[in-house]
Amino acid sequence: MIANLRNKLATLSFLMMATCSVATRAQTATPQAPNAPLPSALATATKIFIGNAGDQENADCLRVYSDFYQDISALGRYQLVLDPNAADLVLELHYEIAVGQSIVSSHNADAVRQFRIVIQDPHSHIVLWSLTERTNYAIRQGNRDKNLDETVAKLASDFSALASETPVPPNNKSIIKH
Asked: Label partner for 100 (CA 20 to 30 A): which of 2, 35, 124, 147?
């Protein structure tokens, strides 16, 4: 009888520890991100102002600004306006270099430059979203042009998907691995 009672207590103890273990793991598991709605202004905008907040003396920045402007214009969905007060959305192009890293990459895995599009409501000045794409610097102009073409195409594609009637947030993965 005592042996039977010990077996029952051992089984009960085991079940309680297992239940506590499962509950603890459930509490510490990484929660899934909620499917939060995107700002409605992204889907309803018809007028866009594109500003260049990049380095005005950097030929790559000026080229990316010009190419991004043309790509957004080519979508045919937006009227590009010259006054941010007349826009439904303001897109600011930023050029960034990771602090403490060399500008010149020795191979493709060392991306240090990136272009960021900050999307703002022009009236409240609230940032609605931002898109970032890394790009590798290249010594040869042909390679640099190819890298910048890929970067601009990805930014324009991400914006188009994000601002569509059925918005799709970008997957947050740069075409350049780091």
From this structure: 147
